[in-house]
Design goal:
This protein is an alpha+beta fold. It is built from eight helices and six strands.
Length: 212
């Protein structure tokens, strides 16, 4: 495995796996613990809402972009990070990684889509409350981390999620989705020196060094 840090501060790791399938992940070092000053659950809301459109792609295009290549796209939020990840054929890894960066840096959070996503998240909160195992785990973590930034449930609460507005999402992303908090990981059947060079070129395109 080859690892490094770019001049922009973005860390990366590439590895050759000898398989036809490639795996890409963009990890952003922010989660529930970074929500001070925001309604609880905003990190998870951002993770959902970024799929609702970017400056170049609509929600429908995003949802079908990797499907057309036979790939998969998904994301998740924890108390400490947001992770966007994709699985594609090795020849399509650049398209996958490019989409992950686009979601992280160009999400538009359109108002109408935000309301749709709010409903999805509120339903998710209800489903967790109806699941005893999930509810007990959330209550346990709240007690375990009481008095710290980690005590808040990842999904937030129904009341807090209803307070989240598009400007808040934009501000949260601006503050946290920066190169110094990002890690790009790529695993593909490509020579690591070649893969590293291609990754560095992509990062420079997304975050030109002159704009630091």
């Amino acid at each position: 495995m080859t690892t490094g840090t770019t001049p922009q501060g973005l860390r990366y790791a590439v590895r050759r796996n000898g398989r036809a399938v490639a795996f890409c992940a963009l990890t952003i070092g922010c989660g529930t613990r970074d929500e001070q000053g925001y309604p609880a659950g905003i990190a998870h809301f951002v993770e959902h809402a970024m799929f609702r459109g970017t400056r170049r792609k609509s929600a429908n295009v995003i949802n079908g972009y990797l499907d057309k290549l036979g790939g998969e796209l998904n994301a998740y939020t924890t108390k400490e990070e947001i992770v966007l990840h994709a699985t594609v054929l090795k020849e399509d890894w650049k398209k996958a990684a490019g989409l992950l960066f686009e979601l992280a840096t160009e999400a538009t959070f359109p108002e109408n889509e935000i309301e749709t996503e709010r409903g999805v998240i509120l339903d998710e909160i209800i489903s967790y409350k109806d699941n005893p195992a999930e509810d007990v785990y959330d209550r346990f973590e709240t007690l375990l981390f009481e008095g710290t930034p980690l005590e808040t449930p990842i999904l937030g609460t129904s009341a807090s999620v209803k307070k989240i507005k598009a400007p808040m999402l934009h501000r949260f992303v601006k503050e946290n989705f920066v190169p110094g908090k990002m890690v790009l990981s790529v695993v593909a059947d490509i020579d690591e020196a070649v893969l590293e060079k291609q990754v560095l070129k992509m990062i420079d395109h997304v975050f030109p060094q002159s704009n630091r």
